[in-house]
Amino acid sequence: MNEQFRNPTDAASHAKLLDRLGEVAVRVGLGLKPGQELVVTAPLDAVALVRRITEHAYKAGASLVTTIFSDEESALLRFRNGRDESFDTAPAWLYEGMAAAYRNGAARLAIVGEDPSLLAKEDPEKVSRANRARSKAYMPALNMIAGFDINWTIVSAATPAWARTVFPDDPEEVAVAKLWQAIFSASRVDTPDPIAAWETHNAALQARTRTLNEKNYAALHFRGPGTDLRVGLADGHEWNGGSTRAKNGVVCNANIPTEEVFTTPHKDRVEGVVSSTKPLSYNGTLIQDIQVRFEAGRIVESKARTGEAVLNKVLDTDEGARRLGEVALVPYSSPISQSGLLFFNTLFDENASSHIALGQAYSKCIRNGGTMSEEELASHGSNKSLIHIDWMIGSDQVDVDGVTQDGRAEPLMRGGEWVTS
Hints:
Layout: H1 8-30, E1 37-43, H2 47-59, E2 64-70, H3 72-81, H4 92-103, E3 107-112, H5 124-146, E4 152-156, H6 160-166, H7 172-186, H8 194-215, E5 219-224, E6 227-233, E7 240-241, E8 244-245, E9 251-252, E10 261-263, E11 265-275, E12 280-282, E13 285-287, E14 291-295, E15 298-303, H9 308-315, E16 324-329, H10 335-338, H11 346-349, E17 355-359, H12 374-379, E18 388-392, E19 399-403, E20 409-414, E21 417-418
Parallel strand pairs: 1-2, 1-3, 3-4
Antiparallel strand pairs: 5-6, 5-19, 6-11, 7-10, 8-9, 10-16, 11-14, 12-13, 14-15, 16-17, 17-18, 19-20, 20-21
Helix pairs in contact: 1-2, 4-5, 5-9, 6-7
Keywords: Aminopeptidase, Hydrolase, Metal-binding, Metalloprotease, Protease
Cofactor: Co(2+); Zn(2+); Mg(2+)
Organism: Microvirga terrae
């Protein structure tokens, strides 16, 4: 029996919090409606959470819940034993089926908990080719997700490999228990009424987006150690944060947890240098101390202390991979930041720090973007790519100014904290 559950009270408490997380995922994350199908993806170690989510989905009236499990050990076997030509293939039939489900109204839920260093020792060229093949096959489904055609959400589950990375000095059972507690806390399920807590939190994030939309800044200027970056904002950009209404009319929270407000940069109006403030865990490779330089919106120089080969392969995915698709602001005092933990997981670390994302932009972040063609979105500055990868550039040493349409700089964040109300 796991050490953390030898006390029956502890086991009961964990079961209660896990059930609450399943309920929050369905009611807050998805806003699942009666009659909707649900497609879930999850690692094998997340089966307990999958069952809680499945139960709450059916209680909410789901017509069918289908879960697709992944296994990291099997992924490693591919890289160590697969034929070279196999790394240019992906299960197109699977992604076509997922896209068909979304076109027919299904909701999407992803449970993440990957080993941050799973592929660290594997051939970067094979990793890049496999990721590119997957991205191409997944693009029809991804377009519907990025465009919020459907209601969708991402939640996390504590897995042994991930827990060992976050808590390397603890026995595995202790590490897993600590990581679960951190997930429960960040997801607000350890509060007396998690649903009400999310309603309050969403209201605060939406108040911040209203303020930023009223400001209608032309650009953001980030300054800090190794960073002097001006991010021009897309024409007609719109800030989002917290819950959002998908095109199917369902209100959802795409990330559980979330602390960010975000919008779309102009793909051609990013200038300067920027350094990452937290490691980026990307498909099993840990990329640390990223430094890049932008000219006319495009990354023209890049380096990293670890994972540089993988970073360069990512940047070569397509033309849009060297341009930005998102910029997000997160105060240093966010609960995830104040936990003091480095999660080595983008879902959490991006909500501890202001960040930017390489690649695909969200049409949701352009006014009336949901009705625009790809050409119209591009004319507003929206980027297109096979990838969307967030990495962290904020800290308590980073200041942010909002640059008005007439070129004036207004203090927006100082030392990582909001200045404006």
